[in-house]
């Protein structure tokens, strides 16, 4: 009995060794059903991702240039205004009275100047007849010049008072969206040279820009494209990187690199006709640095990883074969790879069962098996995949090569 138990245990150990594989994965002697994807040849963009802040092209924080009482507010909160639209009125009566005084003083001095010029013409005629001395003529000429200076001074006072009256009627200096109302009729405002207490803030939203940063290592290829006068597209996404809010183009680069972060600021401009971008909003940006043409593309989900090695299962004659690949750029669920050719059919599911030389049956979209891999479906694209500008050093899977 002891001998019989020993023989039975030895047999079980031998059987287990035949079934187990060196990679630690169990061998499946049956046929594996998998979804297939076909490697294609196409173009793929090289994107540089970054986090940006929506920044208006122009922002006007409007303050009062005169002291007075607010008599009227002409805008509605959140209203879109054009250049010259009325915003606020300040009581202009004190400044209109001052202007009237200046205009009266100007008219008086203009009369004095006219009289001095008339006397000068009389003295000039009398001197030509030797009726007066030359000194009287010269004195009168200087009096005319003095009166002309007085009139100019009066004219400057009048112009200044007109400006003061004009400042009592505040209009929009730029086109854009008005913020919340910060003053009400009856409030007393003071003239200010700072924007710490503005009366109203206007931000331009069409067009609008997004400011983000690029690492200094990414600067060289971008500059190379800009020197060729190539317009680099930029896409703005929301926080989840799911919704494309707007598409624009690179506008300008800062003139120096920030030594503390090793980055340079970049500005992109967007039409923002649907006003999807809001000032000071945080967005994810993708700068299209370059486009790779005639690249071999497969779904990112078909790439598996074994340590530092990336591989795919190529399906040939209903058999899966491991092929090592070198992943490159990943974009919108597709990855550019080297190591296989366009037209090769790769597995895109059932990786926990697949091994090298495993017999396979290719399933269609409904899950029914097919006996041939020819014309395999390009399934396996992940729904909701978003763009990524980083180069993919490996696949999305986690299985190991046997």
Describe this structure in words.
The protein has 402 residues and is an alpha+beta fold. Among the domains are: 49-57 and 205-216 and 225-286, Efflux pump adaptor protein, beta barrel domain (Elongation Factor Tu (Ef-tu), domain 3, Beta Barrel), CATH 2.40.30.170; 59-90 and 174-203, Beta Barrel (OB fold (Dihydrolipoamide Acetyltransferase, E2P)), CATH 2.40.50.100; 93-167, Helix Hairpins, CATH 1.10.287. Helices cover 25% and strands 35% of the residues. It has four helices and 22 strands. It has helices at residues 2-19, 93-128, 134-167, 216-227, and strands spanning 32-38, 40-56, 59-62, 68-73, 80-81, 86-90, 169-171, 176-178, 188-189, 200-203, 208-215, 233-237, 244-253, 263-270, 282-299, 304-306, 309-316, 319-331, 334-338, 345-347, 358-363, 369-370. The strands form three sheets. A six-stranded antiparallel β-barrel has the order 2-11-14-13-12-15. Strand 18 and strand 19 form a beta hairpin. Helix 2 packs antiparallel against helix 3. The longest helix has 36 residues, at 93-128. The chain is elongated. The two termini are 39 Å apart.
């Amino acid at each position: 009995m002891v001998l019989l138990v020993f023989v039975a245990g030895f047999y079980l150990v031998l059987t287990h060794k035949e079934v187990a594989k060196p990679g630690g994965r169990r061998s499946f002697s049956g046929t594996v059903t998998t979804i297939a994807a076909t490697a294609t040849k196409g173009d793929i963009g090289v994107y540089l991702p970054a986090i940006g802040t929506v920044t208006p092209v122009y922002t006007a924080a409007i303050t009062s240039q005169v002291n007075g009482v607010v008599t009227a507010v002409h805008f509605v909160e959140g209203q879109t205004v054009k250049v010259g639209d009325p915003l606020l009125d300040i009581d202009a009566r004190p400044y209109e009275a001052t202007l009237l005084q200046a205009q009266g003083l100007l008219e008086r001095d203009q009369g004095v100047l006219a009289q001095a010029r008339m006397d000068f013409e009389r003295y000039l005629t009398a001197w030509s007849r030797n009726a007066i001395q030359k000194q009287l003529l010269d004195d009168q000429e200087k009096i005319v010049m003095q009166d002309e200076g007085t009139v100019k001074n009066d004219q400057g006072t009048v112009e200044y008072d007109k400006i003061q009256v004009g400042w009592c009627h505040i209009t929009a200096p730029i086109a854009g969206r008005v913020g919340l109302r910060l003053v009400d009729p009856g409030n007393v405002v003071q003239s200010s040279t700072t924007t710490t207490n503005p009366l109203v803030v206007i931000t331009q939203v069409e067009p609008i820009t997004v400011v983000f940063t690029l690492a200094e290592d990414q600067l060289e290829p971008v500059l190379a494209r800009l020197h060729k006068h190539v317009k680099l597209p930029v896409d703005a996404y929301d926080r989840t990187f799911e919704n494309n809010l707007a598409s624009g183009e690179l506008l300008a680069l800062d003139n120096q690199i920030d030594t503390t972060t090793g980055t340079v600021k970049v500005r992109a401009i967007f039409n923002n006709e649907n006003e999807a971008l809001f000032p000071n909003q945080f967005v994810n940006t993708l700068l299209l640095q370059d486009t790779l043409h005639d690249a071999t593309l497969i779904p990112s989900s078909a790439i598996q990883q074994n340590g530092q090695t990336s591989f795919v299962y190529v399906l040939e004659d209903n058999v899966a074969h491991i092929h090592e690949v070198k992943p490159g750029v990943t974009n919108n669920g597709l990855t550019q790879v080297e190591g296989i050719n366009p037209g090769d059919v790769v597995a895109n599911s059932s990786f926990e069962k697949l091994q090298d030389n495993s017999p396979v049956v290719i399933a269609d979209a409904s899950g029914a098996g097919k006996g041939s891999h020819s014309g395999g479906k390009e399934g396996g694209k992940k729904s909701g995949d978003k763009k990524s500008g980083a180069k993919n050093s490996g696949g999305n899977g986690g299985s190991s090569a046997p």
